[in-house]
């Protein structure tokens, strides 16, 4: 874990799903949210690993990987501060069919499975947000399958870089060519060639597992339409979360005003009877 990351002030509000909860609901979760470091290469679950927690990333990025019997892997989704790892728990299952692996170091808030299930079943805002996020994640998985089948390695790399940039506070990424090849399910030589093309166009600078994006607008012109589909879906997700929170706040404010008026009415009635 880098010194810079460890010095960043931490708050559950850094995760979009937690930040969208009503203030009173989030405050009830505070004592149960455990801040944990997320180290590159760390696995958070899998088919043979019983889930005991869900993770809400704040400054880390996690890839969902599927593996073949001979050890080959393919990334099916990327999760950052917009989401949660361990959705199968609130769907009634305590394992994951894929393997979540930390790809970018940082932190996450961990929540016990029992409390998650309790909140999911009884707190409608959390249930709504989790299900809405599930829809966005399924869209990412489906679009990734389309992209892997029909687009070039260079376009895959552009999509991967942009998805990471959307989830980290910097234009610099730490990932080796081998790591990228494993995530995209392609040969390392293909990544070397694709990264070389982008570097010659002065879109990125690559050196020893370190990628710096020099020109994001040009990177967006090189990517396939799949990134735009995913960007639209996640922008809509974040918009929905903000809208949902605003509606809940207005309802609570209106409910509080109604209680205040009713109490005042009762107070006047009591005073008149006393007189």
TrEMBL record:
User: What Pfam families would the database entry show?
Assistant: HTH_Crp_2 (PF13545)
InterPro entries attached to this UniProt entry: cNMP-bd_dom_sf (IPR018490), Env_Response_Regulators (IPR050397), HTH_CRP (IPR012318), RmlC-like_jellyroll (IPR014710), WH_DNA-bd_sf (IPR036390)
**GO MF, any single term:** kinase activity
Stretches assigned to the HTH crp-type domain: 151-217
Q: Which domain of life is it from?
A: Bacteria
Cellular component, GO annotation: cytosol
Q: Which UniProt keywords apply?
A: DNA-binding, Kinase, Transcription, Transcription regulation, Transferase
Q: Which PANTHER family match?
A: CRP FAMILY TRANSCRIPTIONAL REGULATORY PROTEIN, HTH-TYPE TRANSCRIPTIONAL REGULATOR ARCR
Please identify the protein, giving its name as recorded: cAMP-binding domain of CRP or a regulatory subunit of cAMP-dependent protein kinases
């Amino acid at each position: 874990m880098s010194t810079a990351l460890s010095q960043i002030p931490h708050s559950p509000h850094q995760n979009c799903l937690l930040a969208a909860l009503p203030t009173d609901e989030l405050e009830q979760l505070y004592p149960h949210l455990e801040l944990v470091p997320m180290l590159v290469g760390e696995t958070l679950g899998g088919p043979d690993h019983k889930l005991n927690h869900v993770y809400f990333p704040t400054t880390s990025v996690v890839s969902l990987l599927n593996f073949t019997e001979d050890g080959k892997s393919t990334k099916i989704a990327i999760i950052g501060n917009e989401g949660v790892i361990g959705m199968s728990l609130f769907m009634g299952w305590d394992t994951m069919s894929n393997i979540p692996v930390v790809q970018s170091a940082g932190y996450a808030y961990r929540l016990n499975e029992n409390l998650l299930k309790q909140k999911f079943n009884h707190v409608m805002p959390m249930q709504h947000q989790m299900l809405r996020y599930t829809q966005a994640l399924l869209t990412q998985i489906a679009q990734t399958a389309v992209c892997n089948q029909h687009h070039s390695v260079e376009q895959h790399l552009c999509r991967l870089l942009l998805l990471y940039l959307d989830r980290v506070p910097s234009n610099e990424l730490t990932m080796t060519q081998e790591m990228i090849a494993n995530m995209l399910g392609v040969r390392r030589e293909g990544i070397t060639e694709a990264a070389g093309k982008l570097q010659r166009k002065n879109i990125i600078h690559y050196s020893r597992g370190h990628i710096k994006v020099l020109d994001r607008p040009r990177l967006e012109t090189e990517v396939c339409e799949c990134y735009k589909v995913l960007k639209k879906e996640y922008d809509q997700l974040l918009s929905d979360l903000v809208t949902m929170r605003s509606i809940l706040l207005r309802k609570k404010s209106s409910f509080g005003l109604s209680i205040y008026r009713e109490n005042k009415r009762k107070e006047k009635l009591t005073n008149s009877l006393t007189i």
